Amino acid sequence: MMIAALVISLVFGLLLLAVVSNGANAAKSKSKRAKPTAKFNPATVKSRWTIIQDLTRQGGNGLRQAILEADKLLDYVLQGKGYRGDTMGERMRSANSQFSRRNDVWAAHKLRNALAHEVDFDLVPSQVKQSIAAFERAIKDLGGGL
Hints:
Blueprint: H1 2-30, H2 42-58, H3 61-80, H4 88-95, H5 102-117, H6 125-141
């Protein structure tokens, strides 16, 4: 009798935990945006974008650095505009509906990841041009100050 009562209590407790957990997740997922951060500054975006453009004109290692910096700048805008997520990929998913060229933005971010994580990645200048344009478009789509 006591074991049955214990099992019933355990099952009830697990069900209650599941309901509470789902309610918290539903409330969390309702808003894909948090409050924008106070430190976001459109002037910072413009000045960093000028640096990125200068890097693309340098060629060679400048192209690699331009992609890395453009990706960081997009993440700065995502965070500054309050998009939720623990990683940039999660923040990009939160903002996905805002991007006019979703596939291009994701391709640019994947290129950045390849540059950052693959030892002998061969960078093609046309890829850089397309990716930089995708990052620029995404920042504009988010109202990032460009």
